[in-house]
Amino acid sequence: MGQPVVHFEVIGRDPERLRSYYGDLFGWEFDTSSPVSEAVSEPMNYGFVGGNTTGDGIGIPGGVGGGADYDGHTIFYVGVPDVEAALQRAESLGGTRRMGPAQAPTGLVIGHFTDPEGHLIGVAGTA
To answer: Would you put residue 40 in left (φ > 0), alpha (ψ -120 to 50) or beta?
Structure first.
């Protein structure tokens, strides 16, 4: 099996409004108490979606955040053993590194790249 999608994000200039929208639309509840990398969102303005997986494990964890100085986008993250190596591989195949590796306060390391057609993709791991 290939590497799995492990997280998604919706980032925008008004994260509170986005959380309200997605909460009303899908019944999502958000926890904004956990820190994330400032490369991703303003401090304490990132809401992790709570309860979006079933008892059978169906669903992908995610979050909604950003702030006034963050470009709006949606992104999914693929779990990788080495973020720097994954970014280098993406570049060698025609992608473009956009961010990272950047370490979150929790120790998670993330990176962003665009594929050859400009789609933003994330990678996440511990190294």
So the answer is: alpha
d(CA 41, CA 35) in angstroms, rounded, equals 9
Whether the per-residue pLDDT at 57 is higher than 90: the answer is: no
Tokens of 87: 């970014």
| Paired tokens of 12 | 């925008």
- Sequence-distant (6+) residues with CB within 8 A of 102 are 37, 39, 40, 109, 110, 111
Grade residue 22 by pLDDT with cuts at 50, 70 and 90: very high
CA distance 69 to 112: 17
pLDDT grade for 106, boundaries at 50, 70 and 90: confident
Q: How confident is the model at residue 90 (pLDDT cuts 50, 70, 90)?
A: very high
Cis peptide before 43 (omega within 30 of 0): no
Is residue 111 within 8 A of residue 52, CB to CB? The reply is no
Tokens of 80: 């990788």
